[in-house]
Amino acid sequence: MAVRPAVAAADAGQLTVWYDGDCPICTAEIGLMRRLDRASAIEFVDLSLPDACPSDRNARLARLHAQPRGGPMVAGAAAFVAMWRVLPALRPLAVLASLPLILWILERAYGLFLRVRPVLQVIVRWGLARGAGGTR
Q1: Which among 84, 79, 78, 82 has a CA at the least distance from the CA of 103?
Q2: Does 70 or 101 have the greater pLDDT score?
Q3: How far apart, in whole angstroms, are the C-alpha atoms of residue 87 and residue 40?
Q4: Which helix (H) or strand (E) holds 5?
Q5: At how many degrees (to 10) do helices 100-134 and 77-85 cross?
Q6: How far apart are CA 19 and CA 97, in angstroms?
């Protein structure tokens, strides 16, 4: 239950999201969020850039992190929900995902994704390289 107030805090305004800019899956996800963020409510911080991390870089790279302005840091599924909450198109999804059972399921699914992410990154990079090589 401690996660729910932190997720709801994103309603108040700006949100900072730290992401792995070296991960093609992460950059694709953030690209979509940027397109949906027409009000520029989210500050996206690419952790692959030097001096981009205000705290433990490895911890921030291990899971998606978000922090509403003036609110507590959230990570994992709660960070996604915080991001969805400030995007009008995804706000209904955020309301549903804020339910404790749904958030618990999303967190477990995110944990599974994190386990296979290194393999998925290799596959995506291979596909991108192959696609780039085929268009020359």
Answers
A1: 78
A2: 101
A3: 9
A4: helix 3-8
A5: 90
A6: 20
